[in-house]
Amino acid sequence: MNSRLTILYERKPCYDIVFSVDFQDLLPELQTLSIEGRRIGVITDSNVAALYGQELMTLLEGNCKKNVMYSFEAGEEHKTLSTVKNIYEFLIKEQFDRKDLLIALGGGVTGDITGFTAATYLRGIDFVQIPTTLLAQADSSIGGKTGVDFDGYKNMVGAFYMPKLVYMNVSLLKTLDDRQFFSGFAEIMKHGLIKDSLFYEWLLDHMYEISDRDTDTLLEMVEQSCKIKKLVVEKDPTEKGDRALLNFGHTIGHAIEKYKNFTLTHGESVALGMTAAAFISWKHEWLSMEEYYEIRDMFVPFQLPITIEDINPEEILRLTKSDKKMEGDSIKFVLLKKVGKALIDRTVTDEDIMNALHEIHYVEDCE
Prior knowledge:
Layout lengths: L2 E7 L2 E9 L5 H6 L7 E7 H15 L5 E7 L8 H13 L7 E6 L1 H13 L5 E6 L2 H7 L4 E6 L2 E8 L4 E5 L8 H18 L1 H9 L1 H6 L2 H21 L14 H10 L6 H18 L5 H10 L14 H8 L5 E2 L2 E2 L1 E6 L2 E5 L4 H11 L7
Parallel strand pairs: 2-9, 3-4, 3-5, 5-6, 6-9
Antiparallel strand pairs: 1-2, 7-8, 10-11, 12-13
């Protein structure tokens, strides 16, 4: 049986998130959007197109005015304005107008690109999210943040634009390789750390079921994680206040991700960023030493890094100053007051950041 959450915007229902273990109810959900009279453009990447593209196209066939698919080359390096431009050209050629609909079929990159395209094509066209990765299901498909990278800087160009539906089929998570699966888990762990200590403890208690990708456990995990994000984004849909708490681990994480030229996954980079932020929280005397080490060490069973080799801490610090979370000369740094309660701190110094970077920087002992 499916379950759903309804996301509110300005206290009014905005869109539903549907949680399922298959695609059985996807067509009925899409039919509530009156697709029979609309062109539908499925936007996906080359990897996902090979896995699920034909299944979705077959499902749509005969149930809408026209269905077409556009596939771009997979990878974060293609999350650019150039890719968006190519999609614009495809939609113009296929005569898409404002009454038509886009479907983002894929991970976070696909969702961000499709959402930004939808927000800007003809000043706005409806879109639906069908996230296929844990990272997208737990985080990027919810809340209406869309965008692309610019000259290697993460999400520097974007818009807040809400989907009409998010359909989550957790059985798709079983096809992910371990690295991609646990990369997404970093964002789920983040939600527990910033807002819900009981959920954080539940994750630790269900470590083995999560690692085995037990279907019922995945369904509960994704739904509980989305409930946390729902509360945050409804309170602050355009990131003027509390929504910035969702950036826990991302300030240093994004800098590491760029420095390593995206050879680390987003989740791996964020795990390192969360470790560094927890370290600063300890040094601010908000977390105890025991709490810091527990948070740090709990990433390890989920195959997430807590140290990194071959970085230049000074260069990482410089990159944090290029982050879109800068306000004037200060960084909106998210720290933990305690497990389950985060806060925005604007007093984090360069020395604080450097100390945290040295904490996570693994230097081999040559003696």
